[in-house]
Design goal:
Arc Repressor Mutant, subunit A, 72% helix, Rna Polymerase Sigma Factor, Chain: A, 2 domains, mainly alpha, 10 helices
Length: 180
């Protein structure tokens, strides 16, 4: 079914069209969500909740030119809401902020299997992992991240630095031993 016809059927509440859209997008969306969630089961649960929310508000997505990108962005925010992220006030940020440099960690992760990459990323604490994913992988600015997580821009940058340092340690350990 073509996108326009599929969209019309979804707006009418056609379950087959909804299922077709789910089959079309679920793999890509799960790949995004699993980077944020603690495990695949949690990611699948978030995907289900997010997809239902998206269908309930489908008329808002239907008018966008880049439909899949808008759904992906929506799912990231649904994931953040489902994870109920709260800023950890006990994190020591002293000395963590550095000037932006090329992300060597991200380049290395591109050469690691998807499952190993997810396992390595999941070893980072939740908030720094979310900030890292949003900034380095999904392309959000620190301002957008700060608004989404209800933190300051500086705090977002600091969480990113924390994630990057932890990731560098994990990648070095993985490179030496083949284990994470």
């Amino acid at each position: 079914m073509e996108q326009e016809q599929l969209s019309e059927q979804i707006i009418k509440g056609d379950r087959e069209a909804q299922f077709e859209l789910f089959n079309k997008l679920s793999g890509k969306l799960l790949g995004v969500i699993v980077r944020y969630a603690e495990n695949k089961n949690e990611a699948e649960e978030i995907l289900s909740k997010g997809f239902v929310r998206m269908l309930n508000n489908f008329h808002e997505f239907n008018s966008f030119i880049d439909f899949e990108e808008k759904v992906k962005r929506f799912m990231i925010f649904v994931t953040i809401a489902c994870l109920n992220i709260k800023e950890n006030k006990n994190v020591d940020f002293y000395g963590t902020l550095e000037t932006k440099k090329e992300n060597v960690c991200l380049k290395y992760l591109q050469n690691v299997s998807i499952s190993d990459c997810i396992n390595i990323l999941n070893r980072i604490d939740l908030i720094p992992r979310v900030v890292f994913n949003m900034y380095a992988i999904d392309g959000y600015s620190h301002k957008e991240i700060a608004e989404a997580l209800n933190i300051s821009n500086l705090t977002s940058e600091q969480y990113y630095q924390i994630a990057e340092k932890k990731l560098e340690i994990l990648i070095n350990d993985y490179a030496r031993s083949g284990k994470y």
